[in-house]
Amino acid sequence: MDYFFAQIEERENPHFKGKPLVVGADPKKGKGRGVVSTCNYEAREYGIRSGMAISRAYSLCPTAIFLPVNMSLYKRISISVFKIIKKSFSKYEKVSLDEAYIDITEKVNNFKSAEIKGDTLRDEIYKREKLRSSVGISGNKMMAKIACELAKPNGIKVILPKNSKKIISKMGVEVVPGIGPKTKKIIGRKLDKKEPRVKDANTLSKRELKEMLGKRGEDFYCMFRGIDHSPVEEKREIKSIGREHTFQEDTRDSAKIIETFKKIVNEVFEEAKNKKIKGITVVCRFEDFQTRTRQISFDAKRYDNDFYYKKGISLLLGLLTENNKKIRLVGFRVRV
Q1: Longest C-alpha distance within the chain, in Å?
Q2: Which DSSP string corresponds to 266-331?
Q3: Per-residue pLDDT tens for 118-154?
Q4: Distances (CA, A) of 139 to 76, 142, 144
Q5: Which domain holds residue 94?
Q6: Are 328 and 250 within one domain?
Q7: pLDDT for the residue numbered 333
Q8: Which of 46, 179, 218, 262 has the most CB within a 10 Å radius?
Q9: Per-residue pLDDT tens for 186-229?
Q10: Is 275 within the bounds of a domain?
């Protein structure tokens, strides 16, 4: 789906159309503490991007329309969209509220037929929900995802398998799933390039990549050549219950951090106390917006609040020990 949250808000409020719109948090005249969840293309022209501090977004475009996240509405529309997908396709993998991979190998004989099916799906979604979407088609998940990004907004793009390596070679290595800033830096250091491209990474042997990046290096060797063997598989949606707290000011005050953490653990426990829990995750966002998580799993059963807190505070302290920067946000969630 194209700029899903913001597009829904435009649909619900037609007078927002054509104006820069940001969904995320209250900017409070540049002093807000949240982040941008998504924004429309008019806002992107000002340099606003998802994940950006809401205060930064406000400084880039103070005249933009800023709206809070209306998750119940977005989830309801997402369910409707996936009903449309399910009606036509049996094999799909839900990635998020607004994204999915669909395997149509058994339904078509060639890429032209696949393109027709993709356009039909986009038309059905628009007819039902009056929302635009984009479709990428290729021989594997990674290249289909890349094709989809190239198709946005409101388009369809086919990358034939024979052209995959040529197309991906021109892109930065971060286009490959699993390559974030840290891995990009390691590859760049090896190649002596600050912004390494896939064609640069293709000069590295499978052995070199494995020595640098472990087993994932072998996967990256294939992906740099447009090859991705990961299947489209239906996964049971992992359900979780959680809370996050953004501090009014970045802090390293351990008493304040622990007190806040204990409070959100209590809130999560109250909501989840009658459910069987399979694990917990602790989230910590630092002043530079680096977000770290730690999680543990255990036998699914009911646990008391003290158990949650002891396990959670241990993970949190581990995160605080490995990074001495001030804290912007802490979070806690349980998997049910």
Answers
A1: 63
A2: HHHHHHHTTS-EEEEEEEEEETT--EEEEEEEEEEE---HHHHHHHHHHHHHHHHHH--SPEEEEE
A3: 999 999 999 999 999 999 999 999 999 999 999 999 9
A4: 31, 9, 7
A5: 72-164
A6: yes
A7: 94
A8: 179
A9: 999 999 999 999 999 999 999 999 999 888 899 999 999 999 99
A10: yes
Give the CATH number of the domain where residue 118 resides: 3.30.70.270
* Distances in whole angstroms, Cα of residue 273 to Cα of each of 86, 239, 332: 33, 15, 14
Which residue is it, tokens 């054509």? 18
Which two tokens mark 116? 């027709």
Q: Into how many domains does the chain fold?
A: 4
Q: Is residue 168 a contact partner of residue 136, using CB atoms and an 8 Å limit?
A: no
Per the CB < 8 A criterion, the answer to whether 104 and 118 are in contact is: no
Predicted local confidence at residue 44, as pLDDT = 97
Question: What does the alpha-carbon distance between residue 229 and residue 175 come to, in Å, rounded to a whole number?
Answer: 16
State the pairing for strand pair 99-102/65-68: unpaired
Closest among 258, 264, 260 to 242, alpha carbons compared: 264
Q: 238: pLDDT confidence band, cut at 50, 70 and 90? A: low
Quote the pTM value.
0.76
Active site residues: 99
Q: What percent of the chain has pLDDT over 90?
A: 76
Residue 178 region by backbone torsions, left for phi larger than 0, else alpha for psi between -120 and 50, else beta: left
pLDDT tier for residue 302 given thresholds of 50, 70 and 90: confident
Asked, for residue 235, whether it belongs to a domain, the answer is no
